[in-house]
Amino acid sequence: MPLKHLELHNCNSAILTCMEELSQLTALVIDRFPELISIPENLLRDKPHLECLKVSSCPKLQSLFPEFSGLNSLRSLTIRWCEELQMLPQGFQNLTGLESLEISDCHSLITLSEKHLTSLEYLAIMFCPSLAAFPDNPEHLSALKSLAIISCPLIEFLPDGIKHAIALRSLEIRSCPRMTELPEWTALISKDVVRRTEAKTGGKFLMSLTDTPPQTWIDTLGTP
């Protein structure tokens, strides 16, 4: 029976070069590879059934796979604690079936592009202190339902083009001190909106509730 789920934790990087034959994988986890600088080009080759990929705690990782072609089944991608990673590869746009993308604790990440990710429903960008801007042209995110931007201190605004994310129901912005206002279109996401702001004194929350339970949370922690 072919192997479907594989997790590699705290292993030698050389093991990643021995996986070409695992063509039936549906889930792959690469975790705690302290010396890994780049992921081998052939690692994801001939993995047409791969649905979930997680890469975490690779502090020296500088580049992901140059191409994501052939990963037509990939639905979920998580990248965490890769402190030296500065950007995502151009081939990233080939993941047209991707539904969930989480990027967290990538302290050197300076640019992010999710062009052509027309199936993306969940996007979370967290603890990326070097990321200065959200992608300029997010008009293609028409399927996006949930967006979270947390602890990205250099991001100053959301692009107006994200208003085309007509399916958006959840918006969370937390610990982004340079973001001082929200675009007018945020009021159109749902008729039920909760704005939550952290008070400067006591660490309490000031809340403004609508008459019915909220579908959208706009969390602007740290806003004056």
Automatic annotation (TrEMBL):
Keywords: Plant defense. The keyword Transit peptide does not apply. Transmembrane segments: none annotated. One of its GO terms (biological process) is defense response. SUPFAM superfamilies: L domain-like. Gene3D superfamilies: Ribonuclease Inhibitor. Coiled coil: none annotated. It comes from the Eukaryota. The keyword Nucleotidyltransferase does not apply. This is Disease resistance protein. It comes from Sesamum angolense.
